[in-house]
Amino acid sequence: MVLSVLLRFIYPPPSNQFVTAMSVISLVSLGNAGIMELKGKHMQYSKLWNFGVDQKIPADKKAKVSSKTGMIIAYTPAFLASVTSFVLVPVGDFRFDLLRSAITIHFFKRIFEVLFVHKFSGWMDTEAATAVSLSYFINSATTIYSHHLIQGLPEPQTDLKHCFVLDGKELCN
After folding, report:
1. Alpha-carbon span 106 to 46, nearest angstrom
2. How far apart, in whole angstroms, are the C-alpha atoms of residue 107 and residue 113?
3. Cβ(49)–Cβ(42) under 8 Å?
4. What's phi and psi for 139, nearest 5 deg?
5. C-alpha–C-alpha distance, residues 51 and 55, integer Å
6. Residue 80, by phi and psi: left (phi above 0), alpha (psi -120 to 50) or beta?
7. Residue 129: closest CA among 49, 54, 55, 44
8. pLDDT at 82
9. 51-92, pLDDT tens digit by residue?
């Protein structure tokens, strides 16, 4: 029952072992990160990370980069993955092009904001910057790849592309 309702809005996942494995890895790692946050072991990613921190390694012993550099490290690989998708698959269907354009614009906007809008004064743990970067990269690349695999399949009964086009400003934020 639930599956039949969901399939009206979403494609069935492609039967690809890589996409399945990456989906499981992402689900487990993001679930673990959420549980750690609830337990008070924060990733030390935001400027508010000092709140209630219980550190095993003293802050002065951890490898750090400036917050600006950390954010560039976090966003650039996902941006490059989305740009690369246009080189590797220059022509796609409308839904595929819309998806990878949205991901590209999203990360370009983030990088632009880091470089020209926000002022940073703090530091970011290199470990946190790397973890966030890897998460963004893997999720972006896997999303683009899975949508590449489903090109040509019949579209879901309820077409939500127009909702995205109308509200894309929120999704690209």
Report:
1. 19
2. 10
3. yes
4. -65, -40
5. 11
6. alpha
7. 44
8. 96
9. 444 455 555 667 888 888 888 999 999 999 999 999 998 888
